[in-house]
Amino acid sequence: MALNLGVIEGFFGKPWSWADRTTVLRTLAGAGYRFYHYGPKADPFLRRRWREPHPPEQFAPLAAFAAECRRLGVRFGVALTPAGSTHPFNEESRAALTRKLRQLDALGIDDLAILFDDLPADLPDLARSQAELVDFCANNSRATQVFFCPSFYSDDPILERAWGKRPPDYLQRLGRHLDRKVRVYWTGEEVVSREIGVAHLERVQHELGRKVCLWDNYPVNDGVRMSQYLHLRAFTGRPAAIRHHVTGHAINPASQPLLSCIPALTLAASYREGERYAYGQAFLTAATKVLGADFGTMLHRDILPLQDTGLDNLGPRFAELRERYGAIDHPAAREITDWLDGRFRTTLEEVQTQ
Fold first, then answer.
1. Mean pLDDT, residues 142-167 taken together
2. Which domains are delineated in the chain?
3. Across the chain, where does the E strand assignment appear?
4. Which member of 43, 110, 117, 118 is catalytic?
5. pLDDT 10s digits, 220-274
6. Residue 212, CA distances (Å) to 199, 217, 239, 317 in order
7. Which are the contacts of 38, defined by CB distance < 8 A and separation ≥ 6?
8. Each residue of 259-273: b (16+ CB within 10 Å) or e?
9. N or C: which end of the chain has fewer CB within 10 A?
10. What average pLDDT does the structure give for the chain?
11. Per-residue pLDDT reduced to its tens digit, 292-325
C-alpha cells in the first residue's frame, strides 16, 4: 500500500528561496512525495498579517511554484494561521477569511491547511469554535482537501506550559464537531517525537474518530536550541506498519533545504523496504543521490559533530569542518558552512514575532 508522503514547510527562522523549494520539490517528487504545503512561519501574510493579501512580488513566485507542483503531479497546498479569528468568529472574521481564501483560490490550490499551532489556546469552547471556522473555510474554498492542525497537536505537556491548559476531552470534541472529511495534523506523543507507533496512533484515532495525518517534526531544526544542530540521520522510530493508521505522513524540513532531502529520502525508503530497511545504508544511499558518493561518505563520517555535538560545543573541530566543507563546490556544502558561520541560527525574537 503506497503511503501519501508530503512536506509541510512550517518552520521558524530564515525562509527558503523559491529556487530552494523547487529543488526540494523536484528531488522528493521523484521519490514518491505527493503533496507540498507551503506555510513558513516567516511569511507574515499567512500568520500575523494574514488579513492582508500577499503583495504581487510575493504572489507571483508562489503561483509559479504552485504550477510546478501541478506539472510534477504533486498536490499543492497553503497553510493559513488565522490568528485572532475564532473569539469572536464574527462577520469581520468571516469577511477577512473570505477575501484571503479568494486570493489562495487564485493559485489553484489543491489543499487548504488551517493551523492553530503555537497560538494562545486558553479560550472558551475551543474545539467547537475552531471546528466552526474550519468548516467555514472548507465551504468557501475551492481546495478539494482540507487539513487542520489543532492547538494541542500532540500529547506533549510542553504545549500546556506554553499556550494554556488543554480543555477536557479536546480531541473527542474536535472529532464530533469537525467534518469527517477534514484531515487532522498530529505530531505524535511529543512535539518532536522520537518514535511514532501503532498503539499511540490507534488511541488518537479512537479519540478523534478518524486517522490522523502525521506532521513529523524531523528533520526540522528551528528554534534557539535546535538550530545548533544539523538533522541529517536517516529516519528511525517510524515502523512501516503505521502506514495503515494514518492518512498521510508529512515532514517538517530543516532550515537547510538540500540537506533536508537526505532524511526525507530515507523516510520513503523505510516505507518501501519495510522490515528490510537499514537506516545506515539508507542514509548512504540517500546522501549519494543528493551529494554524490565522495561527499556523501564524508558527511556520513561527520554526522557526530554535525548532528550531536552542537554548534557552540564544536571547539577545535569547528576550524577543521569549516575548512573541509568550505573546499567543496556544492550547494549542500555551502549550507553546512553557512550553518557553521551562524547564518541559520534561529533567534528567540524570530520565534516570538514570526
1. 97
2. 5-285 (3.20.20.80)
3. 5-9, 33-38, 75-80, 111-115, 145-149, 183-186, 212-216, 246-251
4. 118
5. 999 999 999 999 999 999 999 999 999 999 999 999 999 999 999 999 999 999 9
6. 13, 15, 16, 42
7. 9, 21, 62, 65, 76, 77, 78, 79
8. bbbbbbbbbbbbbee
9. N
10. 96
11. 999 999 999 999 999 999 999 999 999 999 999 9
Contacts 24+ apart (CB under 8 A), 329-333: 330/291, 330/292, 330/295, 331/258, 332/256, 332/258, 332/259, 332/290, 332/291, 332/295, 333/295
Residue whose C-alpha cell reads 537526505 in the numeric block: 262
Say what the pLDDT of residue 95 is: 97
The neighbour count for residue 248, using CB atoms within 10 Å, is: 21
Task: Enumerate the β-bridge partners of residue 7.
Answer: 36, 251
4's grid cell: 501519501
Is residue 112's pLDDT more than 60?
A: yes
**Given pLDDT bands bounded at 50, 70 and 90, which one contains residue 3?**
confident
User: By the 8 A CB rule, do 224 and 264 touch?
Assistant: no
Distance CA 298, CA 313 (A): 20
Q: Which residues contact 204 (CB under 8 A, 6 or more apart)?
A: 171, 186, 212
Nearest-angstrom CA–CA distance, 338 and 322:
9
Question: Grid coordinates standing for 40?
Answer: 513558513
Distance in angstroms (rounded) separating the CA atoms of residues 41 and 215: 15
